[in-house]
């Protein structure tokens, strides 16, 4: 009786909360969008299982093995010899689940808002590819198209639709003559939010991925000579949104201390950029400037608005503030390590 009463009370408390959360359009979009990838996950799982038969050949002895064990051993040998071929479907299903999800989430949220779901899904996909597939030495890095990029996919899928919806609500469209076919007019008017999305996401990653320009500034004033040297070497590339020197020179890669601000900084910058554009504090970007243009030139050329430069400087200050406590921890650890070596 007591257990029944507790369960009833929990049900009375939690059911309304669950219903309210379940009906929240952004959470519904995430849930529905992730379901887009379910068939691909299932198919990919089958091929992953097929590529990894459950047998250890080191413990396999042909002379004492029965028919089943011989079959398993043959399967294992075939899987090892053809591993790349067998896992190709896995790599192109589960391996790109982030890419599939960003389309699905944007599609679902746009559907909730009753705006063009397919176009929003495609715009989100393009933005996700721009953010998650850096090109290095002519090669595209595909590591973040899968589960590694899922969190970014969720953020981009939601934000892109909200930005496009802003254009719909504010009726920001090109006025075209009535003689222009509706399909052509729709196509032309999708270019404006697309360019705005691309430009906004570029502004949000000042100093490259992770918004590392603030970290570079801190390093230039560091007590550790090694950090000062790396900071001075990284400042010019950082101004041009190239942060490989600091990513691999500090390094940020596999650095648990800097992982937190590296993830937080671009998200905060992106949200601030979105709201600043929404309330009219800065100009909306409509020109996609060449890659590796210095950030202040990017900011101005994107919309011909000097306020964008001021806003970028503000974002850099915020980046410094976010990175500061984490950098000081790393700096103190480095100082102690140097003292111990001496």
Helix content: over 70%
User: pLDDT under 50 segments (min length 5)?
Assistant: none
Task: Return Rg in Å.
Answer: 25 Å
How confident is the prediction overall: mean pLDDT? 78
Care to count the β-strands? 2
The number of distinct helices, counting runs of at least 4 residues, comes to: 15
Q: Element order, helices and strands?
A: HHHHHHHEEHHHHHHHH
End-to-end distance: 70 Å
Strand arrangement within the widest β-sheet reads 1-2
In terms of structural class, how would the helical and strand content be classed? mainly alpha
Instruction: Please give the largest β-sheet.
Output: 2 strands, antiparallel
Strand content: under 5%
* Anisotropy-based shape: globular
Subcellular location: Cell membrane
Protein name: PTS sugar transporter subunit IIC
Membrane topology: Multi-pass membrane protein
Organism: Enterococcus lacertideformus
How do the helices and strands line up, and which of them pair or pack?
Elements: H1 2-22, H2 25-35, H3 38-51, H4 67-81, H5 83-91, H6 97-113, H7 117-132, E1 135-136, E2 139-140, H8 150-169, H9 182-203, H10 213-220, H11 225-239, H12 244-249, H13 256-278, H14 295-303, H15 307-341
Antiparallel strand pairs: 1-2
Helix pairs in contact: 2-6, 3-5, 6-7, 6-8, 7-8, 7-9, 8-9, 10-11, 10-15, 13-15, 14-15
Question: Can you give a write-up of this model?
Answer:
- It is a single chain.
- This protein is mainly α.
- The chain has helices at 2-22, 25-35, 38-51, 67-81, 83-91, 97-113, 117-132, 150-169, 182-203, 213-220, 225-239, 244-249, 256-278, 295-303, 307-341; strands at residues 135-136, 139-140.
- A two-stranded antiparallel ribbon has the order 1-2.
- α14 packs antiparallel against α15 (307-341).
- The termini are far apart.
- The model has no long low-confidence stretch (mean pLDDT 78).
- GO terms for molecular function: protein-N(PI)-phosphohistidine-sugar phosphotransferase activity.
- It is a multi-pass membrane protein.
- The chain crosses the membrane at residues 29-51, 92-110, 147-167, 179-196, 202-221, 258-276, 281-300, 306-326.
- This is PTS sugar transporter subunit IIC.
